[in-house]
Amino acid sequence: MRLDKYLKVSRLIKRRTVANEACDAGKVTVNGTIARASYNVKQGDIIELTLGARSVKVKVTDIKETVRKEDASTMYEPIL
Is-contact 76 60, C-beta < 8 A? Predict the structure, then answer.
């Protein structure tokens, strides 16, 4: 699954266009390297988002095309 779609489906970012813009701006890294929106996300990847003053680091645990809002947080686990 594309990185921008994963960020939207997992609800880490609200809209896919915003996820795409964040990737283009270099605010999203996967496994320590800046990733493009077209990056193919795999289980076990470490995604780090920097949006404004907020920084989020998560590990991909599951990849689904569609998911209910209540189950979106099962697609990743936060890393502190």
Answer: yes
Tens digits of residue pLDDT in 28-72: 999 999 999 999 999 999 999 998 888 999 999 999 999 999 999
Helical H segments across 1-80, by residue range: 3-9, 16-24
Distance CA 78, CA 35 (A): 19
CB 36 within 8 A of CB 15: no
pTM for the full predicted model: 0.92
Is residue 45 within 8 A of residue 60, CB to CB? The reply is yes
